[in-house]
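User: Teach me something about this protein's shape.
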Amino acid sequence: MATFTQTFRIYETLNKYFNNEEDAKAMASGIEEMVNYRFQSEKERLATKMDIMELKGDISHVKMRIRQAFHTQMKLIILIMTGFSLLIVSLITLLLRGF
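Assistant: First, the predicted structure itself:
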């Protein structure tokens, strides 16, 4: 949204180059309309502070769940490796004893 100050600065700049007050006002008004239309059409795509805070909360929740899943998987891997190690040791012991 163009503020009054911005519109006035546009008007002054255009008036300086056009040397015609009416054309400068019409052009500044047209630019302001284009800016306002663009803002209104794109406003739904902009994130609010609340949206950003919700995303940060969601991200931290996902990070925590990933960390927990990693720890659970590591425990499972260690348990499986221990089981296979015991199985291998048992098989070697049986082979060396000759059944």
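Now, about its shape. The CA atoms of residues 5 and 78 lie 67 Å apart. The two ends are 87 Å apart (CA to CA). If you'd like, I can walk through any region in more detail.
User: That's plenty for now, thanks!
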